[in-house]
Design goal:
The structure holds 3 protein chains of 3 kinds. By secondary structure, chain A is mainly α. Helix content of chain A is 76%, strand content 1%. Chain A is built from 11 helices and 2 strands; from the N terminus they run ααααββααααααα. The longest helix of chain A is centred in the first third of the chain and has 28 residues. The N and C termini of chain A lie far apart (42 Å). A 6-stranded mixed β-sheet of chain B has the order 6-7-8-3-9-10, sandwiched between helices. A 4-stranded antiparallel β-sheet of chain B has the order 2-1-4-5, with helices on one face. In chain B, helix 6 links the parallel strand 7 and strand 8. Chain B is 37% helix and 26% strand. By secondary structure, chain B is of the alpha/beta class. Chain C is globular and about 55 Å long. Classes of the chains: A mainly alpha, B alpha/beta, C mainly alpha. At the A-C interface, helix 3, helix 4, helix 9 and helix 11 of A face helix 4, helix 5, helix 11, helix 13 and helix 14 of C.
Chain lengths: 277, 233, 305
Amino acid sequence: MLEVFLFSVIVGLVYMLMAIGFNLVLGVSRIVNLAYGAQIILTSYIASTLLNFIPAVVALPISVLLSLVIGAILWLVLWIFRKDLILSIVVSIAVALLIEGVLLKIYGARLISLVIAPGDIMGISAQWIIAAISSIASLLAFYLMMSRTMIGKRMAAVAENEDLARYMGINVRVTSMLSFIIASLFASIASIAITPLYAIYPHVGWYYLTIVLAVVIVGGLGSAMGALASSMILSFTQSLAAYYIGSPAKDLIPLTILISVLLLRPEGIFGRGVRWA
Amino acid sequence: MLELRSVSKRFGGIVALDNISLKIDRELVGIIGPNGSGKTTLFNTITGHVKPDRGSILFMGSDIARASIEDRVRMGILRTFQQPKIFWSLSVEENIEGVTRDRSVVEYALKRTGLWEKRQRNPRTLTLGEIRRLEIARCLALKPKLLLLDEPFAGLISSAAAELGELINDIYRELGIGVIIIEHKISHLSRLAKRIVAMNAGKIVFDAPVEEAMGMVRKLLLGGGYGEGASRG
Amino acid sequence: MGLKEISYGELIPLAVILIAMSVLPMLGLSSYMLTLLSLLLLFGALVSIYDFFYIRSGYINLGYTFIVASSAFSIAITLERLPTALAILAAFPLSMLFSIAILVPMLKLRGPFYSVATLLYPFTLAPIARLFPEVFGGDVGIYVRPLLSSPTHLYYLSLAISIGVLSLLFILLGTRLAIKLAMIKDDETLAESSGIGVVRVKILSHVMCTLMVTAVMIPYTQVSGVASVELADPMPVLIYALMASALYKPGSALYSFLGGMGIWWLDNFMRAAMYDLRLVVASSLLLTIYAARVVLGVAGTKIRK
């Protein structure tokens, strides 16, 4: 039981990491990036190929870097369409399908998994420890960036009021791109952290998207404590549902939570009443 | 016809309406006041776009404070908006056809507002004055008993403003309905309204016949303070 | 230019196409061709329905495939348990029951909120099907009892239902419902202030949409022989519907019908010639069409005013 508990905490942390990236893009760029789920699995696929040829220490940074480049291109596409929110949503779906299609073509529909660190450390799987450390480190770095650096303050300013930020001499376009790249970075780290725990296939990006949307919307937009709480709630409910009802129930949980919250309290349970419509 | 009894509304820390009581009959009333004085919130509470925190709103004897927007439209409370609002993707005629089944009503509303000849046009080709008239035509088609016009003259050149003022006055006389007009400037209302209600910071500053009101605004203007907003246009 | 001018100008070419299609089986086409043409017609109808009820109202329902898949399941489920006539009658209320779930966000949410919420609905079907395999057949789906054995008969049934759906849409175009949907799309607040029963219009259009989709899915499931969660995937139905309605004139029954048929034809070609690239090609096409609309400056007319 302790193992289930620990596993749920780690998965919850990774969920939070994913959600924070999505939320950042939503807040700073006002882009609903539905290709985010596809971005999450993309890094693991790149890494799985590179790991066949080069050691993990080199392969993982390269796969993250490649994902960031793809993220930057994706930003450019969505930036062009962002004037019309619904249009950009449709376009991001098209991009998600494009990524899924390419992965399907190259890797096929089978399940793949990443093995980065086999073995145990003090009875705990090394993979779990890596997942926990990388998510906590990323979350901390994000906190420091937002509170201590100029980039963080610029992003906060653009998120608060884009026009005002522009008058203050902030380059909104660059800030938006940066937010997107940081989000892609989080997606990549989360990808490498979670794929050793759950195997993936090209269609699974949609599932991660529902997780991200569930965390973001249940947690309320722009609320860090809300995101943490909702990530943990989601992860624990999933573990319990998988344990007591069966594996398909686990997939149904983020959707059920999400749809009920959207209908009952569109601003989220822990939210500060921020709406994105 | 319409009676507000100590209506209050807060938005966060801002008091938009502070204990407003107002009685309006089948008359043409002007409401003036600076930006943020609560004029539009007052309209919104009458039409149901905003639910008041306290107080009651009586229309033709029944309390409508909890009634839906649609119910109030059905009772004859109709409005226009500060920013011209029409259905841009529909033709002039379809803008009216959408709200009423009755062909003769469509024809009447368009002819009365002088838009019949332009009924096939795309509203994007209309002038601002014509758009304002289309908004009024939509209200006419819905058989108004109380017509609320939110800054109808804003942005109009003086000839178009005069034409619109005449139309409003004619409709008011023909139908014997209540008309409330929000304006920044008292000058547009001086020839139109018989009674002026001035608002500031969510309160009614004065409620007086138009001649008296003109005098009060002049006095306030000279004395500074509230008048600044009222003089801006 | 108003709504009516668009619709009557399209009636004649559409009638010509449909009449031409009704004589096709007499040319001795293979049963494969007839099956393919049946699917083309039905898909064209599905796109026209989507275009009318969602693109036209500005409520971009990304969960359309939820309605499509649950209608297919309703038909399969009732056909398995009831005599034919009764089963077909019962399929309609059953699919209504499913689709009430998706009506709720339509009444509560607007704009992107609505689109994202509806996108999630289709993804609930796969886990539900896996949890209740005895009802939904898990990942494989359930077999649909065949009603017509001859492909020619199936073709005529498909043609009849497509004509029925299109006629109904054309009749609706001339009614105030079409104007009201356009009003809601333009400005929901103003529609409310103009006494339009916004909630009533939404419920009415949702009910009609579900009933029409169910009617289309009767021959569709006969042709495919199976009702499965695969239908709930955004690809192909939603993606192709978004593509077809954006191809030329959004809110136009003729062009979405033709576009839908054309894209389905392309899809059939891709399935045969390059199955593993189908998703890549389809998504690139969708991107290209939308990008072209933005570049040409007509994007705004499609989804918002």
